Amino acid sequence: MTHTPKLWSRTLAIAVLWMGVVNGCMLWNTRVQVVQGYGDFASFYTAGTLVRRGLGVDIYNHAAQWKLQQQFASKVELRQGPLPYIRPPYEALLFWVFAYIRFPLAVVLWMVLNLALLAAIPFIVAGERIWNTDYPLWAAGFLLAGTFPGFIDILMGQDAALVVLLFAIAFRQLEARRDARAGATLGLALFKFHLVIPFVAILWIAGRRRVLTGFAAAGAALVGVSAIVVGWRGLAMYPGYLLNLNRREGVGMVYPEVQTNFRGVLALFVGRAPYPGPIHWVLAPIALAGVLYAGLAWRKAGDHLLAEGFGLASITAIVTSYYSREYDFLLIIVPLIAMWVRPQADSGITDKVGRYFEMVGLLLLVLTPVYWFVKIDLRAECLIIVPLIAVAIAWARKLRLAAAEIPPQRKTPLQVAPK
Predict the structure, then answer these.
(1) What CA–CA distance (Å, rounded) separates 178 from 209?
(2) How many angstroms separate the CA atoms of 351 and 121, rounded?
(3) φ, ψ dihedrals at 123, nearest 5°
(4) Is the residue at 325 inside a domain?
C-alpha cells in the first residue's frame, strides 16, 4: 500500500502519454482546417488585426468582423456570419502582435506558444520541488497537452493555457502569502471574468481578503486600457454586445446544452428555454451556494491543504459559471501538480473513499474517448462534469477532515506561516 501513490502517478502519466500520442495524430489530421480558420483563433486574429489597423472601435462590429474574416478565412464553409470576438477589449492587444503575420503562420505560432505555456506550468507550480520528487519529469509536457482539455485548447486556438498560466502564478503567490500580488495576477485573467470573479469571491470568503486589493487595482487598470482600445462608449456597449450574442441563434454563443457546467445539465434535462427562461433563474442560487460552500470549506480547513482548497474553488468556478467548455478543465492541473509534488505525509489526511472518487474522476477526465463518447454518441458534453464533480467531492472531503483535525487556532489562514 505504501507504493500506491507512486503507482497511481505513473499509471496516470502513462495514460496521459498515450492520449498525447492519440491527440497529436488527430491534430495532424486536422491541420488543413486549422490553418483555414475553422478554429476560435480566427476571432482573436480578427480583433488583433482591427486594432493594428487603428479600427479598435470596430472589434465588436459584426460587419467589420465578417468583412475581415472573408479575407483570411474564406474557405470556412460552416459559417454564414463572423466568428465573433467576445473577450474584453484589452486582450485584443495580445493578438495585435500576431496580426502582423499572415493567418496560417499566426495560428501555428499561437499553437506553439500555447504548447510552451502548458509545458511551463508544472515548473511554475512546483518550483524547485519538481527536482526532488517522484513525479515523472518526462511527463510534464504531456501532462497538459496530452489531456483532452489541453488538446482541444490547442486545436481550437483558444486562450485557456494563458488563463491556467496566470492561475499557476497566483497559486505560488498565495503559497508565499503574497495575496495582493495573487489578486493582481488573477485580475489579468479577467478576459475570462465568468471564471475569475467567482474564484476570487471564494478566496475572499476563505479569508484571503487582501486578494481583493490587487484584483481591484488590476481590474481598474485593465478598464482603462480597454477604454483606450475601443473608447469609453465602446466599452459601455460591451455588456450589451455579449447579451445580444447570447440571445442570437447560430452566430452567437455556444448553445446552452453543450456547456460543460450546471447550465448545460439543466438545458439537457429540462430543455432549452427562451432567454432568460427558468434555467437562468435556477443558476443563480446554484452558483451562490457553490461559491459559499467552497469558500467556507476552505476557510475552515485553513491553508493546511492549500492545493485542495484551490482545486475545489477552481471546479466550483467552472461548474457554476454561465459559460464553460472542455478546455476550461485545464484549471484543475494547477492543484493536481501541487499535490503530486507535495510530500505524501504533508497532507496529513487519510480518506480512502475520497481517494477512490479522486482516482476514478481523474482517470475519466484524462481519457479522450470519454469526451468523444459524451460529445458525439450521447450529444451531451455537459455530462463530462460528472467525473469533475467526483474530484471536487474528494477534495471537499479532505478539507472537511482537515477542518476537524486541525486545532481551532491554526484554522485562520492569516495565522499560517509560509513554508
Answers:
(1) 11
(2) 28
(3) -75, -30
(4) yes
State the Cα–Cα distance between residues 391 and 417, nearest whole angstrom: 28
What is the band of 23 on the pLDDT scale with cuts at 50, 70, 90? Answer: confident
pLDDT in tens, 122-156: 889 987 776 666 655 555 655 667 788 988 999 99
In this structure, what C-alpha cell is assigned to residue 363? 482517470
Residue 19: C-alpha distances to residues 22, 295, 400, 417 (Å): 5, 34, 34, 40
Alpha-carbon distance of 68 to 320, in angstroms, equals 35
* Domain boundaries, position 203: 4-414
In a domain, 318, yes or no: yes
- pLDDT in the model for residue 407: 56
Asked whether residue 256 is domain-assigned, the answer is: yes
pLDDT of the residue at 315: 97
CB 363 within 8 Å of CB 148: no
Query: Is the whole model's pTM more than 0.85, yes or no?
Result: yes
State the burial class of residue 239 (Cβ atoms within 10 Å of its Cβ: 0-12, 13-18, 19+).
exposed
> Burial code of 160-191, b = ≥16 C-beta within 10 A, e = fewer?
bbbbbbbbbbbbbbbbebbbbbbbbbbbbbbb
Taking a C-beta distance cutoff of 8 angstroms, is the pair 375, 346 a contact? no
Largest Cα span, the chain: 64
Does residue 85 form part of some domain?
Answer: yes
Please give the tally of structural domains in the chain. Answer: 1
State how far the Cα of 386 lies from the Cα of 262, in Å rounded to an integer: 10
Residue with cell 450574442: 245
For the chain, how far is it from start to end, CA to CA, in angstroms? 29
Mapped onto helix, strand or coil, the DSSP state of residue 31 is helix
Q: State how far the Cα of 183 lies from the Cα of 180, in Å rounded to an integer.
A: 5
Say how far apart CA 51 and CA 57 lie, in whole Å.
8
The residue-averaged pLDDT of 66-83 equals 88
Instruction: Say which residues have a Cβ less than 8 Å from residue 54's Cβ, sequence separation at least 6.
Output: none
Average pLDDT, the chain: 85
The grid cell for 333 is: 492541473
What is the C-alpha to C-alpha distance for residues 72 and 92, in angstroms, rounded to an integer? Answer: 18
